[in-house]
Write a structure and sequence with these properties.
69 residues, 3 helices, 67% helix
């Protein structure tokens, strides 16, 4: 599930940059970085510790923001 989620975030980043939704693009890049542990020292719970429902909810919210239903 996590690798699929990361691939979805990469797709969201591409779509967001094309639509000039820079805040969405930045958030997706931040989440990818958290997944790979770049911010793990500063966060109590990094993205790799999220469960399936939390990941799906976040992904749904981001897709709604860019109009990709």
């Amino acid at each position: 599930m996590n690798e699929e989620f990361i691939e979805n975030l990469k797709d969201i980043y591409k779509k967001a940059t094309k639509k000039n939704l820079l805040s969405v693009a930045l958030k997706s890049q931040e989440m990818i970085a958290r997944y790979y542990g770049y911010f793990s020292k500063n966060t109590k719970k990094d993205i790799s510790m999220l469960n399936h429902n939390e990941l799906s909810e976040i992904l749904g919210e981001i897709k709604k923001m860019i109009g990709d239903n």
